Each structure stands twice: as structure tokens, then as C-alpha cells.
Amino acid sequence: MISLQLGIKSKTVNVKSIIKNGFGKNERNVETMEESKETLLTQEGYQKLEDELELLKVTRRREVAERIKVAISFGDLSENAEYDEAKKEQAQLEERIVKLENMLRKAVIIDESKIDLSIVTIGSIIKVKDFEYDEDVEYAIVGSAEADPFDGKISNESPMGQALLGRGVDDIVEVQAPDGVIKYQILGIKR
């Protein structure tokens, strides 16, 4: 936040808001609207985010502060690349901490014991037949905050996740991908 002088009073404004919305307009920016959206997480995903937040706050903050302290000891800050790099890292670290805190504050934990095994829902683990590669693959449908396609975790907001949600065993779904349409058959649903 930057404090700007506006006539006699000073008003604190979000610089990103001014850039996105223009000065004097409603200061509720796109980020604020995005942050109000709930974050769907499995218990495992929630725990991973909590662990990451704890690591960033306790360990990484201390490490970055030490780097800044060392860089300051080199003298002239105007031409101190180490200081500039450490301050940049500190800003990125604080941004990630704020993002994680917002995600955890808006978290809705999926009760995996209440997952309906007759249809695909968030929290379901599904086995599908990929017709393009003629292979069976297993995916977990998760909220976007914990999606990791390389680990078999597909976001409920992704084209594939959206196509699979609400479908049942033996259903064939078509997913629009950049390379064309991909067909899958749901072979099983579990939690």
C-alpha cells in the first residue's frame, strides 16, 4: 500500500487498483473479487497449504531477512544487486504468504466420507479409459488450489474436470483440448 496526499487528507490506496480501475473509481479490484471466491480443498490439500505457510513465515522470512541484513552490510544500497535481489525475493515471499492466508481463510474442506460414489464429484478418484492412448488412467478431482496434473490431480474448473463432474461409471465424456476432442470412459469411482 502507498499513502498518497489527496488535498488536506491522506488516503491509503492500492496501487494495483489504480492501475486496473483508474484513480478515483471503486477501489475494489479484480484481486479482491477473486479472493472472495471460496477455495475447495481436500484435507490433504489444506494441510499442505498450512505446512507451506508455516515454512514461509517461520523459516523463509528469517532467511530472506538475513540476506537483506548481509546485503546492507555491503554499503551503498543504490548499486547493491544483492540488496535489490533480496528485497525482490522478500516481496515475492510476502505476496505468497498473503495468497496462502487468503486461500486458507476461504477454504471449504471436502468431506471425503460424504462423497457420492455413483457420480464424479470433487474429491472423487476416478479411473478412466483414455481412448487416444488406449490406456487406463486414474485421476483425483480436486479444487483448483491443489490441482497438479503431473500428480494425477485434476482441477474441477479444468475442461476435463468440468466434463467429468456429475457423470457416472460407463459414461463416455468428450473433452475439448487444444489438439482436438479427447474421449474418456469412466471405469470406476472411489474416494
Walkthrough of the structure:
By secondary structure, this protein is α/β, with parallel strands linked by helices. It has 3 domains: 1-36, no CATH class; 39-109, Transcription elongation factor, GreA/GreB, N-terminal domain (Helix Hairpins, Orthogonal Bundle), CATH 1.10.287; 112-190, Roll (Chitinase A, domain 3). Helices cover 39% and strands 26% of the residues. The strands form 3 sheets. Strands 7-6-5-9-8 form a 5-stranded mixed β-sheet. It is elongated. Residues 1-35 have low confidence and may be disordered.
Number of continuous helical runs? 5
For the biggest β-sheet, the strand order reads 7-6-5-9-8
Count of DSSP strands? 9
The largest pleated sheet is described as: 5 strands, mixed
Q: If classified by CATH, what would the architecture of the largest domain be?
A: Roll
Low-confidence stretches: 1-35
Q: Could you give the distance between the termini?
A: 44 Å
Rg, please?
Answer: 23 Å
Assigned CATH class of the largest domain = Alpha Beta
CATH topology of the largest domain, anyone? Chitinase A, domain 3
Overall structural class, as computed from helix and strand content, comes to: alpha/beta
Please tell me the overall pLDDT.
Answer: 81
Binned strand content: 25-35%
Question: In the CATH hierarchy, what is the superfamily of the largest domain?
Answer: Transcription elongation factor, GreA/GreB, C-terminal domain
The tally of structural domains comes to 3
The dominant shape is elongated
Task: Summarize the amount of helix as a percent range.
Answer: 25-40%
Helix-strand pattern, N to C? EEHHEHHEEEEHEE
